[in-house]
Amino acid sequence: xxxxxxxxxxxxxxxxxxxxxxxxxxxxxxxxxxxxxxxxxxxxxxxxxxxxxxxxxxxxxxxxxxxxxxxxxxxxxxxxxxxxxxxxxxxxxxxxxxxxxxxxxxxxxxxxxx
Length: 114
Fold this sequence. Notes:
Elements: H1 3-16, E1 23-32, E2 37-50, E3 56-60, E4 63-65, E5 78-87, E6 93-102
Antiparallel strand pairs: 1-6, 2-5, 2-6, 3-4, 3-5
């Protein structure tokens, strides 16, 4: 996914959620060492995966992104809540997201149906 496509997607998604111009974007570029895991606490932020990596697992309440699994029927690029990012490769990996920061203090994120 290109950054331009992600921005177009997010513009529509934020309008859909009722925050048409009440947000700003931040590029997040994580560098994970071999076998490293990180947790991102994004309760009121939305993270959109761009430049999907191989040998990396990204999981949140919204779902999972992992190109090596065969027991899911859809991979998720959009994540929120506690986001677990794990590099299970034996080499350095880069994971890039666009972080959407909502400028409304009353925002309660929608919870996906599990």
